[in-house]
Amino acid sequence: MSNNNAGGCGFFKWFDPPMYNRSRNVIPGLLRNVDRLETELRIVRQREKRAWVSFLVCVLIFFLLLLGGKSEGPQSPTTPMKQLPM
């Protein structure tokens, strides 16, 4: 029972039937669509990331401006107070 197959009895052989012409025409178009959608998704995610960073910078600037005048503590009045008669 000598068999010229390298390693094995030859029972498990892979057989792919030939592809239909329609399949050969459709599959490349589907792959192009997948590539286009993946590229579009990458661009949208980059824009979303930039939008979040911009939002956080705006919020940080808002709070710095809001708290900026109050960080010095109580301020002394610029005009002297009138003394009450005793």
TrEMBL record:
Domain of life: Eukaryota
Residues annotated as transmembrane: 51-69
Keywords assigned: Membrane, Transmembrane, Transmembrane helix
Name of the protein in question: Uncharacterized protein
